[in-house]
Amino acid sequence: MPTSAPGSKTGRVRRRSRGFTLIEVMVVLAIIAIGVGLVSLAIRDPAETRLEHDAARLVALLETARTEARTAGLVAVWVPGGDAQSEPFRFVGLPASLKLPTRWLDERVSAQVVGATSVTLGPEAILPPQRIVLRLEDRSLQIGSDGLAAFAVVPPPVDTGS
Question: Between 39 and 73, whose confidence is greater?
Answer without folding.
Answer: 73
